[in-house]
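Hey,
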Amino acid sequence: MLASSIARRELLRSTAVAGRVAHRVPARLVHFKPPNDLDFKNLEEAKKNRKPGDFYPPDRPPTPLAVYLQQHPRAKQYFLKLQSILGFQRSKPMAGRRGLMLYERVCAVKPDDEAKFWKEDCYLPSTFQSWFTIVNLHVWMLTVRLRAIPPPYGRDFVQALLDTFFYDLEDRITGVLQPKYNPPTPYTFHSDFYHNPNKPPEGAPRTRLGRAPDRLITRQLKTHRDQYMGFTLSMDAALVQGDMEMAASVWRNLLGARGAAGVVLPAPGQQPQKYYRRSINPPISEPHKIDVEREQWVDDHSGVHDFPPAEADKYLTYPELMLDLVTYIRREIKRLEDIPDEAFLWQDPDTLRFGKVRNYSAQASAQPKKSTTS
């Protein structure tokens, strides 16, 4: 048990190290001067600027120390000076605090914030893998901007963001593979986007629940680490190679490469039959261990597979869908580029939230109304 836990932590550490990126060292080390009221923002003022209808994670209650310091300005002044003396306003301690806030309030909210688009327009199932894919996309988009912040801040913030991402993954994977009657809160917050298939039904008599071995959780973390690294490399290349390459990367990594082996159309006069086929990505190191021709017809219960012949018309929405996704990625990266570096270091994370891929309210208002004749 202890050895498995240590191995899992080493895996998370290696993932964070792999996410580090090289920076060109500037002529001088850039230092940012934080505001005097850092970490003591008024939550009630921040809530006034929130958009109705958007998903926001539950607010973390302020600590007794924070409440006391807000009520005693002189003690707050001395405490901030002590923070500065002890080095809590330096790059790494600041990144540790901000990494959690940026991940929780900017990236991890996207599956729940646009659940209708991901499930109905992208045809993604309500699984943990779909949740991970969506969050992975937005973590990558945010790291693209954080890499441009001069060192050591940019490097430390990317590291902290990835640390938080994989700590949250560990808690959520554990919740799926080792369910409990009273599930603990993940590293961030509970998500209604995906369904836990191992969750015990409410009201049922309590029995001993199945528990996956810890090594299986470690194996799943390795799998998600490989997916993160492959997705990052693919999207980094697409970012500089053009929209066609980005659309291809989105199709492979986000939409499950549906239709890669061809689109099967329904035969005239033939009754609908059960059909299943999915795309297989064999491991690069040992591709011979997987029989692709056989495995592509085996249901892995992921929910991401080719559309059956009776639903082949869904492929017609893919060109417009990939256009909207590529436009969204380019637009949001440009928006993040225009935001000053200081905003990522201590501005309210809610002001950095990603926009919508599709604005359904605008589409509904743009549709012409049917005229009625008496």
